[in-house]
């Protein structure tokens, strides 16, 4: 509980104690302080928590007030999310979906290798891990020879994603240059961008996702700062054709993060997992996403959420959606124990977890969990 030790945040660069950022119910005020302030707070905490620092170690009363048992803590949405943007940055995922709907020859649209494709989502329906998700209803056209029908989605899906929170922000009309983009990326969370594929398939032409996406998006409550992830940075994807200059950067900003998905059906007393190991398969980096998002002068604000899009690799075991795993419902996904799925059933509980594996230590993200509730009657 940082409010208990706020007087200790008096670093060499910033005296953060009077700002009372730690008394706020969300992280927005802290995110607004900027890159150097985030780094200094993290350094201060590392010192206070180190074995050779006596301030907390030897003060039992202060330590008792400052530490909260994780099992006794209620985790909330970490920020007041003003805007939410979802990108489409995994080449394997984009290729798979393109093959399903357009064929191999037209799998990737002409713009996909030129810019980070994205759309604006609905911030009001971003929820914290543990919040149930109601099966959405909408228009679908399962039979292309007949008019559309209305009803509960029959192709409810997951999307394994990660997202980052914006910090600092920029003024309207002033782009964030890619050389400064890292100063505006506060930290990362896990994300499940629940998707109603049958609703989406009927509505997405010509303007893209709408009701098939905006009914619910789940994120993990823990925000892992980028400073903690930098040791796990790996070379970025080779981009051909070469991006335009405003999207070019040479520093490694793709991260080795192990991601896992498990699914528990309501008929199961014990969890039977479809756990799949993923590495961060991203063609466009977060720095490129942010630079592109703001290149036209669009202003982003502290607490805005920018997501990766579904993360999929080249092999079926690394696919990040049931749409791909079932290949648009044409084959069953074996969960073990005699259970299988093509898409989600009511009562299914989906949990995404993730971590970076260091030498003898891990950096974890906490769970991203949601359970499907039946659709409301209309």
UniProtKB/TrEMBL annotation:
Cofactor(s) recorded in Swiss-Prot or TrEMBL: Mg(2+); Ca(2+)
Pathway participation: Amino-acid degradation; L-phenylalanine degradation; acetoacetate and fumarate from L-phenylalanine: step 6/6
InterPro entries the record matches: Fumarylacetoacetase, Fumarylacetoacetase-like_C, Fumarylacetoacetase_C_sf, Fumarylacetoacetase_N, Fumarylacetoacetase_N_sf
GO molecular function: fumarylacetoacetase activity; metal ion binding
Record domain Fumarylacetoacetase-like C-terminal: where: 85-371
Keywords: Calcium, Hydrolase, Magnesium, Metal-binding, Phenylalanine catabolism, Tyrosine catabolism
Active site: 93 (proton acceptor)
List of residues binding Mg(2+): 193, 213, 217
Entry EC no(s): 3.7.1.2
Domain Fumarylacetoacetase N-terminal, chain residue ranges per copy: 3-78
Substrates-to-products reaction catalysed: 4-fumarylacetoacetate + H2O = acetoacetate + fumarate + H(+)
BP terms from Gene Ontology: homogentisate catabolic process; L-phenylalanine catabolic process; L-tyrosine catabolic process
Amino-acid positions noted as binding Ca(2+) in the UniProt annotation, renumbered to this chain: 86, 159, 161, 193
Chain sites annotated for binding substrate: 88, 102, 200, 204, 310
Similarity section: Belongs to the FAH family.
Name of the protein in question: Fumarylacetoacetase
Species, as recorded: Salarias fasciatus (Jewelled blenny)
